[in-house]
Amino acid sequence: MITTERLRLRPLTAADADWWVRLHEDSAVSRFVGAYTREQAQARLQAIEQQWEERGHGLCAVELRDSGEAIGRCGLNWWEQFGETEAGWTFATAHWGRGYATEAAGAVLAWGFDTLGLERITAMIHHGNTASTAVARRLGFTPLREDTVLDRPCTVHALDRENFLSREGR
């Protein structure tokens, strides 16, 4: 579990399927990350659980520490086809504009670099997702390449361990 001043991140499990479907049914959210049926959500969450078991990391539910309300997801996702670990974040629209994505992703990056010893983390952001691009830039990511993820064009941003640690003053 990762905690910040306002947030708690815990590994997602198959028990989160109904919540996952609700998060992704908002058209502003699904525009970039897609919508899910309950069966698709269960399959995706099982894959996330498997990644936690095999790699020691995966996506997390992001909860408000004060209330326990789940407000989004954030974590590290291994992409076999790219040979890269990606930091990803998705939040319910009611919680946009409050700095939660930057706070959660910053904590995930620190965990990935400090605890897991990763040398580079990417962020794959679909074209037009200006809010996620802004989060990535605030965290120190820079564009690396253009690519296709889930059949859609995206810009792959990257942040290496040394640059992250120097930004953090370590």
TrEMBL record:
This protein's UniProt keywords: Acyltransferase, Transferase
GO molecular function, one term: acyltransferase activity
N-acetyltransferase domain boundaries: 7-162
Catalytic activity, EC: 2.3.-.-
Pfam families: Acetyltransf_3
Stretches assigned to coiled coil: none
Protein name: GNAT family N-acetyltransferase
High-level lineage: Bacteria, Bacillati, Actinomycetota, Actinomycetes, Kitasatosporales
